[in-house]
Design goal:
Number of strands: 0
Radius of gyration: 26 Å
Distance between the termini: 36 Å
Largest sheet: none
Strand content: under 5%
Number of helices: 9
């Protein structure tokens, strides 16, 4: 059974334009293919970190839309099993003039803002997740203590921290507090995901390197 079993279409929302604008034409095409692979249960393997970040909120929305659709199908099936609406009752109740008029006047539909709210919530969680790691990136005391413990350079440590941040986004395990992010990262490294050492722990970064990384770390 595929994730879209019985469903022949899906929605893409207008606000993803803000994400697409940050991608190259090639990446935008790859993102569209990833979406199609996902809804056809092909379990796409996304290697580009930027595409992982771009796809995550879209994936979450697709899941929510699917659950809403399944709920509607279930409700319709239950109504059908009860026989649906009665057909042409022999003795319909008499309606007074007011009731007749009310039947002819359509009631205004309540605006459905659930989807927009869900999109906003997803974006807020992702922004908070990234902001937490941005603060960790600038926490020199914490970084230096762990670099000494793990005998690695600051550059290698930050690369590893960024990889951890992206991995959590791909797994939809967004962090809500610095403490949780710190503990999870340390446990993750200690459980076998050691820092990949590309340079000497004594490497000294220039001011230009520092500024570039702080402003462009993802």
């Amino acid at each position: 059974m595929t994730i879209m079993e019985g469903k022949k279409s899906f929605l893409l929302y207008c606000d993803i334009i803000h994400t697409i604008q940050e991608l190259t034409d090639e990446q935008a095409g790859q993102l569209f293919r990833i979406i199609l692979d996902y809804v056809n249960d092909k379990n796409p393997d996304i290697k580009d970190p930027l595409l992982k970040i771009a796809f995550t909120p879209i994936k979450l929305q697709l899941k929510r839309d699917l659950e809403t659709w399944k709920g509607t199908c279930k409700k319709n099936a239950e109504n059908g099993s009860k026989g649906g609406r009665p057909k042409n009752p022999k003795n319909p109740p008499l309606l007074n003039k007011t009731q007749k008029s009310e039947r002819l006047i359509p009631k205004p539909k309540k605006a459905d803002n659930d989807t927009d709210t869900d999109n906003d919530t997803d974006n807020d969680f992702l922004k908070e997740h990234n902001e937490i790691f941005r603060r960790l990136w600038k926490n020199d005391l914490w970084i230096e203590a762990l670099c000494i413990k793990w005998k690695c350079s600051k550059n290698d440590f930050l690369d590893h921290l960024n990889g951890f941040r992206i991995d959590l986004i791909a797994k939809e395990e967004l962090k809500e507090t610095e403490k949780d992010a710190k503990n999870h990262f340390v446990n993750w490294v200690n459980s076998g995901n050691s820092v990949i050492k590309k340079e000497s722990p004594t490497h000294v970064r220039s001011r230009e390197e520092e500024e570039f990384e702080k402003n462009n770390w993802w």
